[in-house]
């Protein structure tokens, strides 16, 4: 692998993927997230194979450490994202007026919200669904793909096309 031999990567994968996957799933607790961790870990192992130092330990031990670190990083990112969504929700609740009657007409963002909803209504339903899940429900693109049962690339394309349309529709109003 250190010389760029893809067949060696294949052999390494066949021998050790089960162990590395089990470590990832133990840390992140989710099959799909563990698959992502395994993929990230193997990419890192492949990219860093040339700088691996055998005097520091066995290749498998090195791979286990990399996979474990990737899993912990993904768990921390999920926690930050979750904490951020919680904080935003709390801030949104504290910004609501005390008197719910007439709240829509008195809130300073009413016009922007109305324009956003109007622009979202012009998008095809598949783009709207992907955008709503990603931006309003706080899902990652991978989570959106799983939720909708479509490939990740399709989710990315739908969100991108939808965001470009929204930008064009709202550009003169912002």
Structural account:
The chain has 174 residues and is mainly alpha-helical. It has eight helices and no strands. The N and C termini lie far apart (52 Å). The model is unreliable at 98-104 (pLDDT under 50).
Helix/strand layout:
Elements lengths: L5 H23 L2 H18 L10 H37 L7 H4 L3 H13 L2 H12 L4 H8 L3 H19 L4
Helix pairs in contact: 1-2, 1-3, 2-3, 5-8, 6-8, 7-8
InterPro entries: RNA_pol_sigma-70-like, RNA_pol_sigma-70_dom, RNA_pol_sigma70_r2, RNA_pol_sigma70_r4_t2, RNA_pol_sigma_r2, RNA_pol_sigma_r3/r4-like, WH-like_DNA-bd_sf
GO molecular function: DNA binding; sigma factor activity
Family: Belongs to the sigma-70 factor family. ECF subfamily.
Broad shape: elongated
β-strand number: 0
Number of domains: 2
Query: Which structural class is indicated by helix and strand composition?
Result: mainly alpha
User: What name does the CATH topology of the largest domain carry?
Assistant: Rna Polymerase Sigma Factor, Chain: A
* Biggest sheet layout: none
Task: Based on the model shown, name its key terms.
174 residues; mainly alpha; Rna Polymerase Sigma Factor, Chain: A; 77% helix; sigma factor activity
Please provide a brief summary of the model.
The chain is an all-alpha fold and 174 residues long. It has helices at residues 6-28, 31-48, 59-95, 103-106, 110-122, 125-136, 141-148, 152-170.
């Amino acid at each position: 692998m250190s010389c760029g031999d893809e067949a060696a990567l294949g052999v390494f994968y066949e021998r050790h993927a089960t162990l590395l996957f089990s470590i990832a799933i133990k840390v992140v607790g989710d099959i799909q997230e563990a698959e992502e961790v395994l993929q990230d870990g193997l990419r890192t192992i492949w990219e860093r194979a040339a700088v691996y130092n055998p005097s520091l330990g066995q290749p498998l031990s090195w791979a286990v450490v990399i996979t474990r670190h990737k899993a912990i990083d993904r768990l921390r990112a999920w926690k930050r994202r979750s904490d951020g969504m919680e904080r935003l929700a709390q801030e949104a609740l504290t910004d609501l007026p005390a008197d719910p009657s007439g709240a829509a007409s008195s809130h300073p963002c009413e016009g922007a919200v109305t324009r956003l909803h109007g622009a979202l209504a012009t998008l095809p339903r598949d783009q709207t669904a992907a955008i709503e899940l990603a931006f309003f429900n706080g899902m990652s693109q991978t989570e959106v793909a799983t939720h909708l049962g479509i490939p990740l690339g399709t989710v990315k394309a739908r969100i991108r096309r939808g965001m470009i349309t929204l930008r064009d529709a709202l550009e003169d109003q912002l």
